[in-house]
Design brief:
By secondary structure, the protein is mostly helical. It contains nine helices and five strands; from the N terminus they run αβαββαβαβααααα. Helix 5 packs across helix 7, helix 5 packs across helix 9 and helix 8 packs antiparallel against helix 9. The radius of gyration is 19 Å and the shape is elongated.
Length: 221
């Protein structure tokens, strides 16, 4: 996968005419190894490069309200701010190349943990015959509230999971997270558990469904 990516970019760079002030802004979530390979490729061609993963999902893209976390040279970031700001509501320069990806990895750890707890909360409240709409109204403005809870809890209870960012993409992202965690000698037990659950969905219809379908990986479902 990495070699195919590099071969594609290598051919793209060789066959394209870039202005000397061109900056490539990569909004994908990829591994730090891929960032290093791309960085060296672009540097050899004297092309500026920013790693700038995003969060906010399909809805954020439609509303131009994405959050962008950027790694790379600060002057390159400053030159790119006007363009990126046109489709984002939050734009943060995180530091050197790769720091954008590390921030996105942190974001994914938080999201997967929240969705894990939402799944368990739903199963618990359902098992105890609580009214799900009342559960939502009681919690949505309290300390346990979150974007994921406010936007995905009721749809989850209605068995609706067609809301953008897929379990397939989350599985890919968490794989990168755990690779970096191993390199950093960190044992992320919760993230490992959630990764296994998302991975179990990859041979099911929920592969293309949104990340709240994590609940379908629980045996109690």
């Amino acid at each position: 996968m990495i070699m195919l990516l590099i071969l594609f970019f290598n051919k793209f760079v060789k066959t394209s005419n870039f202005h000397k002030k061109s900056i490539i802004i990569d909004h994908s979530t990829i591994s730090l190894k891929q960032i290093d390979l791309l960085s060296r490729l672009f540097k050899n061609r004297k092309i500026k490069f920013l790693d700038a993963p995003i969060t906010g999902g399909e809805e954020g893209a439609k509303k131009a309200s994405l959050s962008v976390m950027v790694g790379g040279n600060k002057p390159n970031f400053n030159q790119s701010k006007r363009i990126i700001s046109s489709y984002s509501k939050s734009l943060t320069h995180m530091g050197k190349l790769g720091s954008g990806q590390l921030t996105k990895f942190t974001n994914q750890i938080l999201i997967c943990g929240i969705l894990y707890s939402i799944s368990e909360a739903y199963l618990f409240s359902k098992k105890n015959n609580l009214d799900q709409k009342k559960i939502f109204n009681a919690i949505k403005n309290g300390a346990a509230s979150s974007w994921q809870f406010n936007n995905r809890y009721l749809t989850l209870t209605k068995n609706k999971f067609n809301f953008g960012f897929s379990t397939e993409l989350m599985t890919k992202d968490l794989k990168y997270v755990l690779q970096q965690a191993e390199k950093s000698k960190l044992n992320l037990n919760l993230t490992k558990s959630v990764f296994k659950k998302y991975k179990s969905l990859q041979n099911t219809i929920y592969k293309k469904y949104d990340t709240s379908s994590l609940v379908k990986s629980f045996n109690d479902q």
